[in-house]
């Protein structure tokens, strides 16, 4: 059974037209780790996908609640979910998903399990994208969720089954994701990850902290190969000036300015990606949305460029076939 389901709109419902711009939120926490948050048109008309991935769960919150509450405030179904309420206006025609997974299991065991969790994310997307492999993808990662995204893209790079996901990825938006900045060492990344785990309530004696401290689960994303792969993406890194776990230097990848844009928000570690109606949060949202819009526009421009090239190649192939047919006709005796 596919873990990624489209719960709205129903593709078989003929009453839903492409001109309908309905927004529907359906929380599916047990059946699918990637429940769609937003659907504006029937599934056949969706042209691009946005996937939001959360980080470590607070010890006091289960993974289902955390998957949603990462992006909404206050917590609970009545909270303001900007992925549903604010984002759609700047990403017309996009399907927006969040991914639910056991973050403690992903980061708290060993490198092999971390790889498997990243591949599970790819598989959920792969199944849902069957027949629409060219649809552009934007990724949103909060905290350690950004690390899982990076590992997933590395896995996609080496596994032909998922290579279309890597190729379709255009933009990455990281919210307080530990990147190591200029100190590209496993020890430093492990230290930042431990600080995040402490922030969400893990004790110093927990297995999660022991694993994170070693940093070995992150060895792939520290490799030079991943640094080269990053050059294929447009990236914006958001950091909070009240974030004690991932300060500015740790939240940046250290890429050239034309590849990575760094944006400061007036927020703590959790507040960088959820926005209430307070003045501070609305000011933050006004910084986030235009930067997401730029990523989206770049993704669409790349898609249009590829489509134009493919169309030109198809026309050229047709012209070549017609030319060869006419040439053959001239050579054929009457």
From TrEMBL:
Query: Has the keyword Mitochondrion been applied to this entry?
Result: yes
**Keywords attached to this entry:** Endoplasmic reticulum, Membrane, Mitochondrion
**Superkingdom to which the source organism belongs:** Eukaryota
Identify the main location.
Answer: endoplasmic reticulum
Q: Which SUPFAM superfamilies match?
A: alpha/beta-Hydrolases
User: Where is the protein situated, by its record's location annotation?
Assistant: Endoplasmic reticulum; Membrane; Mitochondrion
Q: Name one GO cellular component term.
A: mitochondrion
Q: Which InterPro entries match?
A: AB_hydrolase_fold (IPR029058), SERAC1 (IPR052374)
Name of the protein: Uncharacterized protein
